[in-house]
Structures are given as structure tokens and as C-alpha cells.
Structure prediction request, 579 residues.
Amino acid sequence: MKYKLLAASILATLSTSATSATYQLSELGTLEDAKYSYVTDVSESGHIIGFANGLYNLPIDISYIDFTENIIENSYDNTEAAFDLSDKEITFTLDDIENNDAVLTNSDAHTFMVSFLSSISTNFEYQKLSSLVGIKYNDTQVTEQPLFDVASVDYDGLTRSTINLFNAVSEDGVSVGWGSAPYDKVSFTPDGDDEAETWFTHEFIERGIVISADGSISVELEPEFNEYGGTSRANGIIKTNSGYTVVGNVSTSIPVEMQDDIDDRCDNEDEPTSVCINLLSSSFGVFNKRAVKWELDESLNIISVEELGMALTPDEGETEDDAFTSTALAVNNNGTIVGSSNTRYYKNDDTILTMPVYFKDGAVTDFINQEDDWQAGKSIAINDNDVITGYATKRIEGTLRNKFFYHDIETGNTVFPTDYFSSSSSYGNDINNQGYIVGEGEVGVSDSSRLKEAFIYKIGEDKITNLNDLLPCYDTDGETDYAYSMVEATAINENNEIFGTATKTVEKLDSLGGVVTDINGEIEYESIAVAVKLTPIANGEVENCAPVEAEVYERNSASFPWYTLLLLPLVGLRRIFRF
Prediction:
């Protein structure tokens, strides 16, 4: 059962009609061929963007695979053993995949191949797959917006080999994000071999992009330093009087020591150079990166590019050995930009941290007090009053935890509000001009069940309010438990409408989109992530679903439906890829 706080206790912390009312939840829709949907940004004029994950019918290219190789035979043997442990009989063979089109008709075979390819993601002799696609929400219609993916030459449709992340949208619907280049299947002969092998390579690891409101125009934000493709990301955008301001980061150079490694290892002899660069980048970070601001005109032509600097100045030795990074994540209508930057640890100049910063008037300001043991974090959003929200990291009860904050640039005051409990990790994702912050925090006390639930917070109040406490207790029949649980609040507009991710239980679908049944033929169920909008209800009342004693018991015992354990990989993707 869903439990709520007593109305009297929750209303004591809520002082406006926006949060003393309950909220009406409505789904924004789901991409037809995807299991999960998320919101990343919303404009005041109603443009909504996000991304989908868990695509059905991912295309599998088997034309180049030798099914007698140990790597795939061993994977099949492990899968067959897992079937046996579940008292199930495996329904396909490797020969079925190779010769009988099993990946097109047998969901178990398709799932096996997707899992196999995912498990060897650092082996570039096999196809690369990605299930992340950019999407736009328009009324009840959800449409895909390809960033860098292209039509495949090996099968129908897009290659489905690229990461595609929409991050921000302007008032008139111009969107920004970043993605990876599509992979090409190429022939490569390693040094000393007589026969060519199939490898998968691409032109760049990540690149920012600006896309017009109707999707017809796209502008790549290629970095000036573009050795090995370089890197760039576009994270924020605002409409200006003359065009648009876009913020993100770009590659600026390669440290000397890393370049020496590249020269030694990436010689295009044992593997293609781009493969070597990918492997080094995922392990060490190849490029120096700097926060950047692009100015574009009304036609999306790039007018200027300005690097925004860092919160430290590397000395000569450091620039040779280490890659340094700063990034811009959001910009407000005053032109103030927020993000993160490498900076020095106050006790030891040789120790480099990544801390929340803001970029204003040519300066980079690191404002979190390290003497309170904060040692990492990011500034994620800023309103037009120059108030920032984000999170910072410190060790609490022996473990690094994130805590959301707000910082007022004018006063220099930083506040870490009370969240769900002392060791709960929490994140501030967005802030509106009225001072409402939305985000999410951990609600499970034990380390094995640190599930997240969304919150809203008003600057000046004592603590956060769980958004699930502002939703109905039951569905419309008055008996069935409410179907949704808010796990992430991503954006809030000036009407105090909240956008984010909720979970609900549905019939389980396999990787081909078919309904899954157990060994007895009974339909199985699963919890999925859906993009939602919360609209405040005027004169609503916070529902009292259970006595206070039940609420306290449930919170302290971290008792949740069994299926919520499946949600761990579903949320937080936005943070991983955007930030």
C-alpha cells in the first residue's frame, strides 16, 4: 500500500497553494518501439524533450560472426545453464541463429544476442548496439529525433549504434544534446596476419548538436581541437534577442603523456586507431575539456565560441601529465552559466577535485566550502534570480553520499536542506524563479535497497516533500493502490507543473515486444519507467492514507514492493550521460 504523511504534519512545511494542493499525474506517452521513457527538459512555452531506452527489435547483424568461436560458444553454454537453473528448456541453438533467422522470430535468441553483444562492449570485432534515442513529446504523440544515427547498409532502419541524448530546449523549441558517431563495419588486417578481419569503428566518441524546432536543421558543434574526432557536448540553451546561447564543453588538447601513450599504442597495426582511442578514452580520458559557450544566430549559424575557463590554473608539469576538465550544464536569461570544474583540494594543491561552479563576468567561482568535507559535485540548474541548485559529495557514515544544495550568488549563501534522512543521497535537478526546487533522493535506509523517490522543496522551508505524498492514495475505483510512483523530478516551470519519471507495473514484454509468460503459462509483470507531468490541483488536499505509525514503520523498514528492485538500472541515466 502507498502511505502518506498526515495532512497536518505535511502542511506544516508547505506554505503555498502550489504544494499544499495535491497533484494530478498524466503520462506524456511512450515511443512506440521502446519500453522506457524519460524527460530531460521543458520550456515555459510547452516544448518537452527527453529520451527513450529499451528499444524492441534491436537489429542484429550475424553476417560476419563465426559461431564456432569460443567467446560465443561459452556465452551460449552459460545461457543454457541459466535456463536449466530456472527449470526452463532453452528454445534455440547457435545454428538456429546462424541459419534459421532465430533472432527475428525467437525472443530468447534475440535476447541472447543483445546480451552477448552488450557483455563484450569493449570488443570492437563485434557489432555495437545502443538503445538510447532522443525523443520529443507533443500532446500524446512521441516522436524520435535522430541525432547522429544514419540508415544501415546491412539491415533496414538506423544502425542503432549511437548514443543520442537530448539535454535542453529553448522557448521556441530549438533543442541541444550530444551523441556518438554511428559505427561502420570495416575490414582490417592486423600486422602479421594474412586475412582481413571485421572491425567496428566510428569517427568520434561524442559531439554536441543543435536541432531546429521542426527537426529539419541540425548543426554539429565540432570542436576546434578535433584530433581523433575530438569531443563536444551541448547541455543547455536559451533564446536571446539575436539568436541562441548554447553551453557545454569541448576538447581543447591532449596531455603530453597521453599523446605519448597514443603514439606508442595506437599505431593502426594490431587494431584500428579509432578502436585504440575509444579504449584509452574509456579507461583514462584522452582529452583536456573546457566549458564553452556558443552564440548562434536565428538561422542556427555559429557566430562565436568562447571557452569559459576552469577554477584552477594547471602548472606546466600538470598539463603534460593529466587531463583537466570543466563543463557548463545550464545558462539563465542573465547569461550566468553553471556547471562543474576541476579545482584544488584546500589541504593539498596536488589533489584535484571536481566541484560545483558558476561562470560569470569572465570568472569561474568554486563556492562549496571544502572545509566542511565536501569533495565533489556539480551545479545542475540556475533560475533567473541567480540561484543555483545541484549536489555536492561528502563522506557520511563512512560512505560517499551526494546532497542537494542551493546557492544564492548575490548573497554568497549556500544551503544544504534537510532531505529524506542523514545518509540519503539527494540531487537538485531544476529550480524555477519562485524558488521551488525539484529532484530526487534515496528513501531506503539499508545499503541494499537505496531506492529513489522524487521531491519538491521551497527555498526557506525546513525540509523536502516527497512528491508521492501529494499524489492520490488510490486509483479512480477508490480501492486499487495508485499505479504510479514518482522516482525522479527533472523539471519545474513557473506554473509549478513538474515533469519527471514515474514507475508503474505492466505486462512484461520481451526484446521483440511480445508478452512474457512463465513456465505455467501465466503472464509475468515488470516495472517500467514512464515520462509524466504533475499538474497542481487548486484547493486540493493532501490525502491521509495511513496512520502516522504505519508511515514511520514503512519508511524505517524500507519495505517496498518486490518489483521496485528492478528499477535500479532505469533511473539516473540522465545524470550519467548529461553530467
